[in-house]
Design a protein that fits this description.
Elements lengths: L19 E5 L4 H9 L4 E6 L22 E6 L4 H11 L3 E4 L5 H14 L2 E7 L7 H10 L5 E5 L12 H9 L5 E3 L8 H8 L3 E4 L7 E3 L2 E3 L4 H12 L9
Parallel strand pairs: 1-2, 1-8, 2-3, 3-4, 4-5, 5-6, 6-7, 7-8
Antiparallel strand pairs: 9-10
Helix pairs in contact: 2-3
Amino acid sequence: MPPRVELPTGRFWSPGNRVRLKVCGVRTLEVAYACYELGVDAIGLHALGSRWSNVLSCEDWIAAVPEDLSIFLLTEVRRTEILASLVHRLRCTAIQLQGQISDQQLTEVASAAKELGVKLVKTLPVPAAEDISSALAFLHTVDGKVDAFLLDKGWYGGTGTTTNWKNARKLVLSTNTPVILAGGLHEGNVATACTSVKPYGIDVESSLEWRLPLDGGVVKPKSVLKIQNFASSLRGKPEDIGHA
C-alpha cells in the first residue's frame, strides 16, 4: 500500500446547508473543468466491471483538476492495495463502493480509506415496497463505518430510474450520516426530490448525457448545457451558482 497521503476532501464535504452536487461518469478534463466552473462539488470516475482499469486513462488529465473539486472513485474493487493505488494515482478524495459486501470486506476497506485520508461512501438500494426493514438493517449495520450513504434504485445504480422518495426520506431520518440521493434525477424533478427527501447531496449521471449512435453502438458524452441547466434547477438562477 502506498504511504498515507494527506488529500483535501474538497468542497463536497465543506460546511454549509446547501445540497451538494456530484456529477458521475466524467471522462475528460473539459467536462471536469466545466463542472468546476458551474459550481459542481464533486465528479465521479468509473472503475466498474471487468474493464475497471480503463479508469487509469484519467490519470493523463486528473492533475489539472482544481484541488477543491472532490473526486469520487466509483468501484466494485474490494482489494485494498488496488484501491490505494487508484486513490493515489487519480487523486481521489472518496471511495464509493458499489454492490453488496461482507462486514469483513467493508471493515477492511473502511480501514484502508481512513489510512489514505479519504471518505468512504456506500451505495444502498431504496426499496420500492413500503417495508424498508432490510434497508434499515443494512444501514444500521454499517453506520459508523462509512462517511456517507448513496441511495439509488439498486446496489449498482446507473439505471436512470427514480427511487422511492418516501422511503428514501425514511432512511435519511434514520441516520446522522450524510445521505446522497441518486436515481432518475433530472432538471425537471431535482428541486422536488430535494424538498421531499432533504438529502445531503445529489448524484446525477445519465440525464446529463447525450446518447449518440457510433459504429453500431452508442456513445454517451456529457452535455455542458445539461449540467448547467441541472445546476440551475438545483441551486436557482445561474448567477446564484457558486463555489460556496
